[in-house]
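Example 3.2
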Amino acid sequence: MASSHAPELYFHILNDYPAIDNHAHPLLTAESRNRLAFEGLTSEADGPALEDAVYTLPHSTARRDLARLYGLPRHTSWDDIKKHRAARPYDDLCRLCFEKANIQCILIDDGLSGVKDMAEQYRWHDRYTSSPTRRIVRVEVVAEDILTELFEAGQLDSDPGIEGLTRFAVLLHTRLKANADNPSVAGFKSIVCYRTGLDVDVASNVPAEIEALRGAYGQFRLRANVPVRLENKPLNDFVVRMTLEIAAEHNKPVQFHTGLGDADITLTRANPAHLQPLIAKYPRAKFVLLHASYPYTREAGYLTAVYKNVYLDIGEVFPAVSMQGQKALIRQALELVPTNKLMWSSELFLTFFSGIGAWSCYMCIGDGHWWPETYYLGSHQARRALASVLYEAVREDDLTPEEAARVAKDILFHTANRVYLLGLEARYT
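Structure, written as tokens:
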């Protein structure tokens, strides 16, 4: 049985050790800080369904955590919390959240809708961290930009043929390689889970891919002034395979959204088990399964345990899942996953795209995003849940205190530092 002083080793680390946030999104600009409903802080819901978010356990926990952050009484109401934050200078609010989150470096996916209009650019976030922010390139956005350019220039039409597919492929390869060569880019990300599911075909189907280009062109013609959306499976799968090839050549990880998402996701196709054939085909590519693949954490853990090239991120569930759920998820991950293959992120992901006649909202929690409080809540709640689970492991003699301390350091900092080749030193006293 562990000695009574054992928790001190890793409680101190979990309070004070710096973190690398391996998957985040940009903050809103000061001018846009009130454009989105703050209730989205803890919920994947949108529209009328978001009204019920304030009745969830994650919301109650977040309300008390925010009251503590702002120096308010524990039982401050949600309306008073919103009034308080609205009255604080934005820079002061951002600095407070990042100081308490103790995040040394952020890897930002800046490819989601709304960033250009409402959010800061990735380099802007350097003012709140001690190590430079790095980019994660969203590959579907790269492909959509290329298609839009080709369609607008008249270089792809309703009958693209093999020449059209080749033209698209050459441009995609060139752009992805340029990003892979860019030292500011830490890796790539795919949201194929949202678009057509994780059951990505491992082999090319040229006739189907040409037909998909026809469909994309038809979409472009029908939806004037609406960006092209990559939503045809053969073309989505084509983009993923090329990304994995280039990422493997350049030793850049590829993040995959898995599991937890909003109503736009088909949940049964968000199970990371669908990725197994792809993982096996590309053994030199590093797969990072995001958001603990919730509710498929055990499936993700299995893949991480049996494939050398798979890593598991345990972000997004903080603060979207109740505290008991967070601890249960970490326990499930630790059932199988090598502890040196787990990483943390703070993500809260909320995107908007313009549908026909309306705006639609898509959210996924875990990585810091839009609001500075998401970085704080993601860090604070993850550290608290990890401390509890690691204490249990020491108490049950599954880990020594020294091993628990190492696990904490790896999850917070060292695994991401190694996987993304960041070359950072943890700034920890």
